[in-house]
Specification:
single chain; alpha/beta; binds pyridoxal-5'-phosphate; seven-stranded mixed sheet
């Protein structure tokens, strides 16, 4: 009997760990990461810091926790406000955690269909000191932008928003769940793409195919604070090297395949467009 191969296209989150990932998990050297002693976690975090051009990295259980920790580190004073795209993952899909858990107020700016927010609207959203207002402390971008069809923000645009942030004394966080897809699609190395950002959250379990986890990257001071918040939120894990070992293989084996993934997605999109045209 011929077996039918099923290609599951619900999401890039449904991929199963490869044999190489499972083997690496089984062989991983581990210790208690809450005590700062897991060698595989430390090696992986150093690797991700180097790839993204930041001082330090921290493995976290999910992208949602990575974004929450990042926003809370940058907005650690009560009465803080973060500027967010109205269609951003942080604003739409993360249970309002920055507000319900972090006490951070969201100021939304409309997302354009290409995932950007108009620069003049970002500037207009920055609060001036007034006893009626919360204090703007952070701007968040999303790259690629999920709700805008996976559009990539250009390095020029990110640099421009980074300049605005800096000139107003604000921080810039990038929700880079699929930042490696953006890097490959744009042909810009990921460290260059996120140069203007004070922090980036990167999903390992999306396009890269790891079974579990995200990393956040930033300065050493940012990661030191992030580590405390990760523990507060219950995201400190013990022998987490088993997960980092799989994530290491995901990064090693998948990055070089993303261009081909994009090519296949475009072919598939072409068919979908063709057939939807026939049915309409
Ligand atoms: C998936 C995703 C997240 C959150 O990641 P989880 O690991 O599912 O919590 C954040 N931002 C974007 C853009 C995402 O696609």
């Amino acid at each position: 009997m011929a077996s039918k191969a099923v290609v599951d296209l619900r999401s890039d989150t449904v991929t199963k760990p490869s044999q190489a990932m499972r083997a690496a998990m089984a062989a991983a050297a581990v210790d208690d990461d809450v005590l700062g002693a897991d060698p595989t976690a430390q090696r992986f975090e150093a690797e991700m810091a180097a790839i993204t051009g930041k001082e330090a990295a921290l493995f976290v259980p999910s992208g949602t926790m990575g974004n929450l920790i990042s926003v809370l580190v940058h907005c650690d004073v009560r009465g803080s406000e973060a500027i967010l795209g109205d269609n951003s993952h942080i604003h739409v899909y993360e249970n309002g955690g920055i507000s319900t858990i972090g006490g951070v107020h969201a100021k939304t700016v409309p997302n354009n269909p290409d995932g950007t927010m108009d620069v003049d609207k970002i500037v207009a959203a920055i609060r001036h000191p007034d006893l009626h207002y919360p204090t703007t402390r952070l701007i968040c971008l999303e790259n690629t932008h999920g709700n805008c069809g996976g559009k990539c923000l250009s390095v020029e645009y990110i640099d421009k928003v980074g300049e605005i942030a800096k000139s107003h004394g604000l921080k810039l966080h990038i929700d880079g769940a699929r930042i490696f897809n953006a890097s490959v699609a744009l042909g810009v190395p990921v460290d260059r793409l996120v140069k203007a950002a004070d922090s980036v959250s990167v999903c390992l379990s999306k396009g890269l195919g790891a079974p579990v986890g995200s990393v956040i990257v930033g300065s050493k001071a940012f990661i030191d604070k992030a580590k405390i918040l990760r523990k507060t939120l219950g995201g400190g894990m013990r022998q987490v090297g088993v997960l980092c070992a799989a994530a290491h293989v995901a990064v090693r084996d998948t990055l070089g395949k993303l261009a081909d993934d994009h090519r296949k997605a475009k072919v598939l999109a072409g068919f979908v467009t063709l057939f939807s045209g026939i049915h309409n």
